[in-house]
Amino acid sequence: MRTIELTYPHTLILEELPETVAAIGFFDGIHKGHQKVIQTAVSKAKERKMESAVITFHPHPSVVLKKDAPHVRYITPLREKQEILQQLGVNRLYVITFNKELASLEPQQFIDHFIIGLKIKHLVAGFDFSYGHKGQGNMERIKNQTKGLFNYTTIGKVELDNEKVSSSRIRELLQNGELEKANYLLGRPLTIQGIVVEGDQRGRTIGYPTANLRVTPDTLLPKVGVYAVKVLYKNEVYEGMANLGYNPTFTDDRVEPSVEVNIFDYNNDLYGEELHVEWHKFIREEEKFNSVEELVNYIDNDEKCIRNYFCS
Questions:
Q1: Is residue 70 very low, low, confident or very high in pLDDT (cuts 50, 70, 90)?
Q2: Measuring CA to CA, which residue among 275, 263, 256 is closest to residue 303?
Q3: Which pLDDT score, from 0 to 100, does residue 20 have?
Q4: Which one is predicted more confidently, 44 or 198?
Q5: In Å, how far are 52, 140, 143, 144, 218 from 192, measured between CA atoms?
Q6: Number of DSSP helices (H) and strands (E) in the chain, helices first
């Protein structure tokens, strides 16, 4: 998959671009609803013997449009989004810089520049996709802006268990520790990537060495606590447990939560290596223990619980 970063106005030459079927949206999480939009575009591209594309934006519009917006964390940061889209068979990814200039474009200007101007012959989007200044463009009005140069497909609301599948709902579930339901809406386990860095090395002294992960600041982390996880490393998959939190038994001054993973039956040095951690089940809240012995007893029980979970 080829990734092409664009800023308005882009300088791509129309005649040099392939005829393309594109899915458009922000697609944070690439959940089951997003997948239906993207897979529809990929399928239609194959039918028409065209290239498939995804048109997305970075950063999140709220970063630009809301003065008091907090730092945005993503269910799928851009790099992970790229990896998932490649797995879905997308040929090219257009990443459009979302800035004030882009936000001020009139709907027709946006369509002329980023749809017609990218040689998109068929556009696929969710029913709630909007574009142009103050979101004035939408999938009901787009028929007046095609200029007869492209067709489009609108994907209706995707529901599971009578509930709309949405990124905001998944965020809410992750913050509440409802990981398995969030994974159901995602259509895969939540995955977080990180580089193994040196930590306090306290885990070794209590019989549970951990890989301490440095994750990018824009990664959305689930609720603080202990989790059943799987670790993907060099094409191998390992079971393990992760503690996401502040280690209150040993310190009370940590500002940001740390991600520490104990990989079952693995003792090799991983410093500097990148791990992909799949989050499968929330086990319990993080607690402050009165002694190291009490902590170790809990960890022993966590390990038994998680091994049984993966065996069941």
A1: low
A2: 263
A3: 98
A4: 44
A5: 27, 36, 39, 42, 11
A6: 9, 16
Q: Which of 220, 269, 288 is nearest to 81 (CA)?
A: 220
What are 138-184's pLDDT values in tens digits? 999 999 999 999 999 999 999 998 889 999 999 999 999 999 999 99
Specify whether the CB–CB gap between 277 and 213 falls below 8 A: yes
Domains in the chain, please, with CATH?
Answer: 2-163 (3.40.50.620), 189-311 (2.40.30.30)
* pTM: predicted TM-score of the whole model, two decimal places: 0.94
Question: Can you tell me the distance from the alpha carbon of 34 to that of 219, in angstroms, rounded to the nearest whole number?
Answer: 19
Q: How many CA atoms lie within 13 A of 220 on its CB side?
A: 23
DSSP state of 220: P
Model confidence at 206, pLDDT cuts 50, 70, 90, reads: confident
The enclosing H or E element of 181 equals: helix 179-186
Q: Which residue has the tokens 């007893």?
A: 297
Going by the DSSP 8-state scheme, the letter that residue 221 receives in this structure is: P
Report the 10 Å Cβ neighbour count for 256.
7
DSSP 4-62: EEE-SSP---GGGSPPEEEEES--TT--HHHHHHHHHHHHHHHHHT-EEEEEEEES-HH
